[in-house]
Each structure stands twice: as structure tokens, then as C-alpha cells.
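A sample copied in:

***
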Amino acid sequence: MIRLAGVRVDVPVFSGRDVIEKTLLADIDLSLTERRIAVIGANGSGKSTLLRLLNGLIEPTQGTVAVDGLDTVRDGKQVRQRVGFIFTDPLSQLVMSTPIEDIELSLRRRMAAGRGGRRAREAAAYALLEARGLAHLARQSIYDLSGGERQLVALATVLAVEPAVLVADEPTTLLDLRNREMLRHVFADLDQQLVVSSHDLDFIADFDRALVLDAGRIVFDGAPDPAVAHYRGLMV
């Protein structure tokens, strides 16, 4: 379970010669237990800040964030082992030249040094790519892949470390319709708890729960259909 209690996030910003505090999130109290949770809202509403709290990429100014009882500040390393994060642009997290190298790098953290070394990790990385229908891309340059292929490789890289929770920040932004549908089906089949922010309101239509953020506060929390209706009302 993910629990946010009394969370507030402030950041310093320059205003003329002065530095003032800008509030990105406030009054956040949530217990997230559903398998698939959507976060929607306008640009600047606080979606990305909320998602980054869940694996300790951002620390709360006030309050606490806990994943299965682990505090994201005090137990940051353990939290990041449990919570995988997918960024909008997969190139921001694919650091090696080819998909198989990227997954092999992720596996170094999980596979013990005495279990066959790099050769064993490469075999395991290839098996993970094959399981997701990506084996034919194993040794292609990351820069030769389509946006959808990169996003699926990034997903495979994150899942290689077997996280309990997967957080995805607007994962469909760079995808065409075919790859967006492919990602939607992949997400539907995952066993992990999934928290996704998205401007694609159809993409999250069958999720279990949706949160609407506006000006750093949660203004609606419920099923996707009424959440989308509420959000559309805010925009009008």
C-alpha cells in the first residue's frame, strides 16, 4: 500500500532579488491500494511532483510518504527497489547503446555476482526481451528504435528488477496510436500496482481509480468516468 499523509511540497524560486517558496502540492492525504490508479490534471497541476514522491525522486517538505511501510526519505534505497519509474521520454532513462545492454545493467543489481557473471545476465536479459516480443531489437541501437519500441524497452528495463509498484509519468505522450494501444494492453496485463499520469483520457478509462489535481491539490478522487467529467468541467 502507498500512503501519503499531510504531504506538502514547496520549492524555492527567484522573484526579483528575493527567493520565495512556491507550493507545488498541498494537503495531500491518500491511501493507494487499487491495482491501477490514474492521475490527471492540467500542465503545472502537480501530477509529476506527486508521482516523483512515490519513489523518493522528490522528498516532501511536510508530511510523509510510505510504500508498504517504508518511508521514502528514511528508507529511500529500499523504496526505489520496490517502485519502478517510467519517464515520459524513454531516452532519459535508457543509458546504454542497445536494449540488451540496458537490461543487463539493471540485472546487475538483482543477480548475485557468483551466478555466471555477465554471460548469465545477458542470457537473462535476452529472455526478458523475448518474453515481451522485443528479442529482435536486442542488439539494435536505441536511437534506431521507434518511440513505441523505446518505451517498451524502458518498461522491460524497469520490470527486470521486479518492482512491486510501477509509476509512469505520461508514458503515451510520444507514441502514435498503434504503440499507444500496445502499451495499454501491456499495462493491463501487468501484475504490479500501477500509478499513471496522463493527458490521454481514453487511455485511463478502464483504470480502477482516478485522481484529479488542480493547482497542487486533489480536487476529485473516484472512478475514471466521473473524474474525467470533473476535469473537463475545470477546463471549461
Remarks:
- The chain has one domain: 2-235.
- Strands lie at 2-15, 18-32, 36-41, 62-67, 70-71, 83-86, 165-169, 193-197, 209-214, 217-222.
- The mean pLDDT is 92.
